[in-house]
Amino acid sequence: MRDSLTGTGTLVRLALRRTRFALLWWFLGITVLYPVQALALEATYPTQADLDRLAASVGGNPALLAMAGPDYALDTIGGQTAWQTSAFGAILAGLMSTFLVVRLTRAGEESGQDELLRADVTGRAATSAAALVVTTAMNVALVVAVALLLIACGLPGAGSWALALALGCAGLVFMGFALVFCQVSSTTRGAWGMSGAVIALAYLLRAVGDVGNGVLSWFSPIGWGQQMRAYADERWWPALLSLGVASALVVLARVLFERRDFGAGLRQARRGPAARTWRGGAYELAWRLQRPTVIGWLIGLAVGGLAYGSIGDDVGDLVGDGDLSGVLTGGETGGQALIDGFYASAILLLAIGAAAFGVASTLRVRAEEASGRLEPLLATALSRRSALGGHVLVAVAASTLGTALAGFATGLMNGWVSGDYGQVWALTGAGLSYAPAIWVMIGVTVALVGLVPRLASLAWLAIAYAAVVMFFGPLLDFPSWVEDVSPFSHPALVPLEDLSLPPLLWLTAVAAALAVAGFLGFRRRDVQG
Amino acid sequence: MCSVELVTDAIEITGLRKSFGTTQALDGLDLTVTTGEVHGFLGPNGAGKSTTIRVLLGLLRHDGGTVRLLGGDPWSEATALHRRLAYVPGDVTLWPNLSGGEVIDLLGRLRGGIDPDRRDDLVERFKLDPTKRGRAYSKGNRQKVALVAGLAAHTELLLLDEPTSGLDPLMDEVFREAVQEVRDQGRTVLLSSHILSEVEALCDRVTIIREGRTVESGTLAEMRHLTRTSVDVTTARPVEDLDDLLGIHDLVVDADHRRARFEVDTVRIGDTLAHLGAFGITALTSTPPTLEELFLRHYGDAVDDRDEEPVA
Questions:
Q1: Residue A238 sits in the same domain as residue A311
Q2: Residue B65 region, left (φ>0) first, then alpha (ψ -120 to 50), else beta?
Q3: Which helix (H) or strand (E) segment is A170 a member of?
Q4: Looking at this predicted complex, what is its ipTM?
Q5: Where are the domains of chain B?
Q6: CA spacing 20 to 30 A to A217: which of A116, A397, A470, B237?
Q7: Nearest-CA distance A270 → chain B (Å)
Q8: pLDDT for A17-55, tens place per residue?
Q9: A289 to chain B: which residues are within 8 Å by CB?
C-alpha cells in the first residue's frame, strides 16, 4: 500500500501547478455565489415584513421546490439563501470535483502523459491519490471560505457552517463517483458522461422527492446536503452520510483500479468492421463519432421529462394548500396557473439542458481539430464548410429533438399519473418552442469555434449564464437587460403563457447570423492544434 | 488546360513566409518539385517542413511569397486540389472508436473514391489488421493506417511528412517498394524524412531547409559535387607539396610520406589526382560524401554560425 503511493507529494505539487488557474476560477466562482446571494436578498427584502411576504408567496410553489429544494425558514435571509444556493452550489461543486478528478487521472492516462510519470519512481496509485488530495483540499477550502463569507454577511454561524458543509460534502461524493467512472471508462469523454449523468440524476431525484413525499430526496447526494436544514434547526448527521458514501466510492474505485490495466477501462476493447462505405461522408462521420453521446443525452432528457411529469399529482396536492401566488406565474394566483407555471419552468430547465448538449456537441469539432484528427480529413476533398457543418448539423438536430423529447416525456408521464393525456402535445410544443434559443447557443459556439478557436470552450459560460438567470432571476429581480441577454428569457412560458411567434423568429435570425459568422471565420483561419 | 498542367511543376514555392505570433516559422523558403519526380525534403526538427506541407494543404494561410500546387492556389482551391493529392502525416492520431479499415475508407471516400483492390493489396503487404480500433493500434500501426489510405489513392501527387516514423525495417522496405511503384506510374512525391538512406534510395532531387529557409536544392550528384570527397591514397614515392594544393582539408600524412588521408573539394579532385599521379599511386580509395555527411555539413554549419554570432 505504502509503495503504491510513493511520489504522491510531488504529484500533488505537479497537479497544483497544472490546474492552478482552473482551481482559482472554480474557487472564486463558487464562493462568490453564496455571499452575493445573501447580500442581494438583504438588499431586495430589507424588512422582516418583506421577508414574510416573500415566504408566503414562494413557499410551497412546486416549480420552485423542484428547482431549488425543500423550503425551510423562508422568512429569514439565511433560509432564503440556503434555499436558493444549495442545489446550484452542489452541482457546481460536483462539476468542479469531476473536472479535477478526470483531468488529473483519466485524461493523463488517455493522452499518455501518465506513462512517463508511472515509469518514474512513483507508486501505481500515486496519480489517483494526488488527484484525491487536490480535490479534497479544494472542497475543504470551499467549505471554510463559504462559511466565513456567510458569517461575514451577518448570518448565523451554525447555519453558515451547515450550508457550506452541504456544498463540500456534495463535492466529495461526486469526487468519489468521478473516480469510480475514471476506472470504468477508458476515455475522458466517457468518464465525464457518466459523472454528468449522476449529477443530473441527483438533482432530479431530489426535485421529485422535494415536491412529493420526500423519500427520493434521500437517494440524492444533493438532497443529503439540503436535509442538513441550514439556518432552520440544523441537523449534522447527513454530512456523515455523505462522507461515508464518498469514502465507500473511493474504496470501490481503488478496487476497480487494481483490476484493470493501465490505459484501459473495465471493458475489453472490441474489434470493429474491416471496411465501411461512408456514403454520407463527413456527415456520417460526425454522426458516427457523436452517436453514443447523442443517445446518452436523449435518454437523460427523456428521463428528466419523465421525472418532472411524474410530479403532476403532487403539484395538484400542493396547490390545494392555497394562498400561493405570484412568482413564476406572471402574477396569476389560480391553481391551474401554478401547475402550468411548474411545467413551464420544468420545460425551461430541460431546454437549457438540451442547449448544454448542443454546445458540447458543437465543441466536438474543435476537439477534433485540436487533437489533429481534422487535419488529414481537410487534406482530402472535404471542404471546411462540411467539416464544421457535419458536427453542427448533429448538434442542431439532436438538441432540437432532445428538447421536444423532454417535453413529450413530461406530458406522457404526467398523463400516466393523472390519467389525462391532454397535455402531451402542448408540452412537446413547449419544449420545441425553445429550439430557437438553443440554436442561438449553438450559434454562439460556432462563432467562437470559427473566430477564436482557442477560447471556444467559453461557450459554456453562455450556458452557465442562462442557468443563473433561470435559477436566480425569479426571486432576485435582476435588471431586465440581465435577463434579456439570455435567449431563454424570450420564448413564451408555454403552457403558462400562449405561444408567441415573433421572439422565435428573431432568435432564429440571431442564431443564423452567429452561425454564418462562425462558418466564414472557420473558412478563413489557420487550422490550429 | 491539360497541356498547361503537364509542363507545370507540381509544386512551386518562392519566398514563402509564415509566422505564428512572434515565431517566424518560414522565412523565405523556396521549393520546386517537378512533375513525375520523387523529391526529398530535409531539415532538422523545427526547420519548417511540416509547416510548409500544411501551407501546401491549405491548412495554414501564408503571410508572404508565392505558392502554386498542381497549377492552382492551395488556399482558395483547396478542395478541388485535394482530389488530386494524398497526404500522410508523420504523427497519426486516430479516432479511438473507429477501426483502421473504417479510417482508410473514410479518407478514401472523402477524397472521392478508393480503389478497393489496391487498398486490400496494401493492407496485406503492410500486414495491417484493419479490424482493430484506433486506440488499440501501436504507433507503427497507426502510421500504416495513414500510409495505406495515402498510397491506395490514385492521385497525381503524394505529400508524405515523415511517413515511416515508427515502422519496422520490413515495413520500411514495403514502403520503399510502394513509392517506387508510384514513381513508375509517373506520379509525383514530396517526401519529408529524416531517414537519409530512404531519401538516398528513393529521391531524384533533394531540398534541404534550415530555420525556415532553403539552404540547398538539387540532385544528389550535384550536391555531392559541391562538397568534399574522402580520399585515402598510398604512393610508390613520398608525396610532396600536398598541403599546398587548393581544396585539401583535414590532411593526415604518414611518417614516410607514402600514405595520405584527406578530404578534397569535389571540384578539385581532378587536379589532386593529377598531382598524386606524379608519385606513382599504388592504392587509392575515394568515398563520395554520403547524404548524411551532406546533411551534417549543413547543420554543422548552422551550429558553427550560431556560436560565432554575437548575441543580439
A1: no
A2: left
A3: helix A157-184
A4: 0.82
A5: 2-223, 228-288
A6: A470
A7: 8
A8: 999 999 999 999 999 999 999 999 999 889 999 999 888
A9: 95, 97-98
